[in-house]
Amino acid sequence: GAVVSQHPSRVICKSGTSVKIECRSLDFQATTMFWYRQFPKKSLMLMATSNEGSKATYEQGVEKDKFLINHASLTLSTLTVTSAHPEDSSFYICSAREGAQTQYFGPGTRLLVL
Amino acid sequence: SQELEQSPQSLIVQEGKNLTINCTSSKTLYGLYWYKQKYGEGLIFLMMLQKGGEEKSHEKITAKLDEKKQQSSLHITASQPSHAGIYLCGADSSGGSYIPTFGRGTSLIVHP
Fold this sequence. Notes:
The complex is a heterodimer. Helices cover 0% and strands 53% of the residues of chain A. Chain A is an all-beta fold. Chain B is mainly β. Helices cover 0% and strands 55% of the residues of chain B. In chain B, the strands form 2 sheets. In chain B, strands 2, 4, 5, 9, 10 and 11 form a 6-stranded mixed β-sheet that branches. A 5-stranded antiparallel β-sheet of chain B has the order 1-3-8-7-6, with no helix packed on it. In chain B, a hairpin with a 7-residue loop joins β9 (85-92) and β10. The A-B interface holds A 1, 6, 32, 34, 41-44, 46, 49, 91, 93, 95, 97, 100, 102-108, 110 and B 33, 35, 40-45, 48, 88, 96, 98-105, 107.
C-alpha cells in the first residue's frame, strides 16, 4: 500500500522554540494532506486540511499563527509549531490522500516541550 | 457535523475469543474506514467500506457496513495478543469534501 513518512518520529524541545514536522507521501501524489493531534487516550483531532499550492484550512479552535502548515509540493507538507509551550506536547499525525482515494497515515511524531 | 460513536470504549478478552466493535454514525456514511493503532504509534489502515452492505476481511478481522442503520461492525475471530491496540473507525463527511471524522476508539486488550 501507499506509504506516508513523518520526520522526526520524536522531538524534545525547550519552551519558546519552534519545531518543524515533515510529512511525505513516498509513492503517490498527495493532493490533500491532513494534520491531526492526538491527546492521551483520546481520538484524533483534525487540526487542518491542506491542498497542494493553497493555504491550509484550519479547524475551529486551532491557531493558524501557532501551527503553520505548508504544502509546497504534492509529496511534502510541513507543520511548524511556533513558540512551543508544554501544553503543545502531544502526538501529531499526518495523513495524505490522492484525490478521493483512501487516506494513508504517517507513523506520527511525538512532541515533548520542556 | 458528522459524529461517530464507537462501542465498547474498551474491551478485555481472553486469547482465542471472538469479539465485535461497533461504529454508529449520526449521518449517512459515504465511506467508512477502520484503523488500528498500537499505543503511541501511527495508524494502520485495515479496510474501507463503501455504501451498500459491503463486507471485507483482513486476516482474521471482518468488517461489515449496514448503510440503512448507519452502522459498521468490526469482528475479530479467535483473538490473539497481536490484535491488541486501539481500533478507530473513521468516515468521510457528506457532500464529497472527504474531510474525515473519527470515533473515540476502542481499546482492546487480549490476555494470553
